[in-house]
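_Backbone structure tokens_
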Amino acid sequence: MSLSFCSLMTGCKFWRSSKLKDSAPKQVEGPAKDDSTMEQNGTAPKVDDLATVTASLPVRSSRGLPDKVYTAEQEAAAGKIGAAIRGSATRWQVKEDYHETRFRAEGSPFEPDELGFSKYAQKNASMPVVSDHLRFKVRDLTKQRVMQQLSQEVQSSWTSFEFMAAKILEKVATSGAKDLPPGPRKQMASVHLFQGEMTTKPKQAEAEGFLARRQDTYLLVKFQVVAVPAVADYDAGFNSLQASSQSFDCDGPEGFNGWFWVLHTAAPNIGESAQAEDFLAYSVEEESGTTSRPFRTESTNSAASTSSRCCWKDRPLRPSRRLNEDLYIGDIARLWRNALKAVQYLEVEDAIFFPFGMGAFLRHLNLNDDRYEDPARIRNLKRRIADELMNAIADICIPLSKSGKSKATTSKPCRLHLCLVCVNPESIDNHNCFVEAAAAKVQSCPELKKILQLRRNVDSLQLAHELGHNTQPLKVALLNGANRKLCGNHWFQSGARYAIDENLHRRSASLSRASLLVNFDTEPRPRKAAQLEETVRFFGGSVVDLTKDKKDKQKAADAKHVQIQDTAATRAPLEASAPQAKPKKSFCFCCSARDSLARE
């Protein structure tokens, strides 16, 4: 037995007690031999002698101070490490609470027909359960497809998606969009950026107890909507669709058949954590002399604090601030209306919406404003969001004449499919708010039943795929709650397994490649105020101002065309007597005006 093996096995108590004692060599009479004599004769030392060898303690880092006295920086680093370890376990508990648990402890979903609205257009018992293994496998396949479609190269296993994307974007920035493959180039030329109400340049918001957020990294400015053509590759269960096996792109013989619009727009984040990015802009500091505490800590008795929550989302010590609900609801209403205006502009027949901004962005609002620890108050806020959608549908999709009756329009009004999920108490609460809002609005607007269709536990991307294959190209639009810094956020990484933005991109290579070109980066970075507008124009896309009426623009172009024709008619007799000049290429100011209006 070798010396190294013996020295390793002596640390095992079982081996020492059972093996060493039984196999110990018998003592032989004779003179004792020292170690040097044993080594010369080629004999090994006794096992008993080896068992008495003691190992020294591991060498510890000398950066720490003696007597376990550490600096504030070291204590902060230790706190972050501990938070990461505890947060890992808490995330799994949150997953169980929000996505896998199928209990009805806080009520059951309302039936719309029982409240006076139409029955479900489609109703499923639950959403499909997808394992993380399959989810990330599809993500990796989508990354490979994106690289292959943009560069005609397959991503190797030892290069990251970020590295390959940076090479592609550097090439595009140098040579221009003309070097893109025909499919992505045609897709990006069809992108529409819809500008809403003009807002001032975002500033760095600061307040006591809140982290200063750099808002110059925002790609999507407030009230903007980006419409991108896309096609689905995987269904709700992350199973491959038939469209993903096609070898041609949108430049092929079928063009945009089966494709649909994806509308990227960003909701305000006022409750994702105790440091929600937009809460400061939608809140005011509580006035002194109120009955509430000036400085708040986490309430251990509140119902909200007993639910599973990541450890870094505890409420810090800071002055109380109160949410300005009217300001927040007003901006949410503008987002609903801008999305519907974009749908009208694109002449879409079927629009697919979901509870926009009512998930993670409201989940921990009570950490910023303790008034929303009351379940009734947070539900009232969600109901107001749902009411604004119903009001927007009634005002935009069902215009009224002066007599108050429904006004017939030349364009067919779109059908709006509202996909509502019922898999946990939070989603059931959102579902009930929209069902109640629809039932209340139909009392004053009966035409709402003809346009709004409620679908329970229906995947929005799969629905867009099915509707897109049963209608003309690009006649379906799907609303996406996008990240305002990066469309698709970090879909190519492992985070946000259930967020709609990331999962739409993981299941559609065409959508992911378009978002990569729109973002022109894989990480948030400081941007110019009009960066998105310049990027869309760079690829040949269109920029539309939603604040101006499309019909007024068309009338202005037609009037200009008539005026030019009259001027040409008066000059005709004078030009007849003049010598004939070289024939010029025909040019229509009307077409030029319409083209410029479409690309404003």
Summary: Residues 72-100 form the longest helix (29 residues).
